[in-house]
Specification:
Elements lengths: L10 E8 L2 E7 L11 E4 L2 E4 L2 E3 L2 E6 L1 H4 L4 H10 L5 H11 L5 H7 L8 H15 L11
Antiparallel strand pairs: 1-2, 2-6, 3-4, 5-6
Helix pairs in contact: 2-3, 3-5, 4-5
Length: 142
Amino acid sequence: MFTGIIESLGKIHAIETHGTNKTFWIESPISSELKIDQSISHNGACLTVEEVQNNLHRVTAIEELSKKKTEPIRKELVDALDDKDPGVRAAAAKALGEYHDKATANALLPVFEDTKPPVRLTTAAAYIRSTGVISSPKARTK
């Protein structure tokens, strides 16, 4: 169980995009002490250390997280549907398409009205995968 104790603060050194994944290189005083495959919290999301180089460590988020299919991960992905980055919103929607429950499907519905067409299309495909049913959002009232 995570107790909320913060051992160290890190700084994002670099971000790389690989498809729907975001890879982060984090500079931290504890990076050199970390081990590959160790799970540590990054701003509340547990991510697995993939590589360590001196005072830097590398982790990957979104697509990898979706493979776990736990309630905390589902909640993080639902929260990511409101991210300012449309790539993150689309990746979160795509990942949520692998969950097959009513709450997740309902969380996807508001994203049908996203300002970015790729996010809307990805969300529609995710909704279909999640439910197997085509639906349209409720008509807006003015």
